[in-house]
Amino acid sequence: GNSVTQMEGPVTLSEEAFLTINCTYTATGYPSLFWYVQYPGEGLQLLLKATKADDKGSNKGFEATYRKETTSFHLEKGSVQVSDSAVYFCALMDSGTYKYIFGTGTRLKVLA
Amino acid sequence: EPEVTQTPSHQVTQMGQEVILRCVPISNHLYFYWYRQILGQKVEFLVSFYNNEISEKSEIFDDQFSVERPDGSNFTLKIRSTKLEDSAMYFCASSVRLAGGRETQYFGPGTRLLVL
Description:
The complex is a heterodimer.
Chain A lengths: L2 E4 L4 E4 L4 E3 L1 E4 L5 E7 L5 E7 L5 E4 L2 E4 L9 E3 L8 E8 L6 E3 L3 E6 L1
Parallel strand pairs in A: 2-12
Antiparallel strand pairs in A: 1-4, 3-9, 5-6, 5-10, 7-8, 8-9, 10-11, 10-12
Chain B lengths: L4 E3 L2 E4 L5 E6 L6 E7 L5 E8 L2 E5 L7 E4 L6 E5 L8 E8 L10 E2 L3 E5 L1
Parallel strand pairs in B: 2-11
Antiparallel strand pairs in B: 1-3, 3-8, 4-5, 4-9, 5-6, 7-8, 9-10, 9-11
């Protein structure tokens, strides 16, 4: 079945460091891919998305490129801020049922 | 910007009691979902709902669970007889489905349910 695998956290970085959070997926067909962010005590917010191969989603300095050949959708940011501290979830949308399948989440902690 | 809202934000209940979690989806959306997140675990799909009926449900969504759209704005999740393992954050989501199956689900802030 469809699945999403994310790198284990927590990830601890200093402010202005480069961030990569790895995400790979297994799916039939060509699912849409998403990154959601969950700040402490809050719900899930859409960060970015990509709907087809080679699409690049971007928002708030974060980017991720839909790589069909490596079945990956890694999240990157060139210079993280303390305010980026949150849990990041990679997800795919099952193209048959439209349900989302989430990864386990990666906690990011950015230190000043 | 329109958003999905959920009430209550927190609910504490005794095991065996019924709870109803409420959601107001984005007004022009037609597809509705419930997910849950047990503390420290991944977000899991429970059920999807369209045109007043369930489209898809997971194995978690057993006979103790039901969903309803009682009026034009609310979407509810009922747990008939709560168990300790129902303690989780419950997220409602809604979407509009575009041509070609393109869809983005927008999530509410969640209801944290604690069953004692």
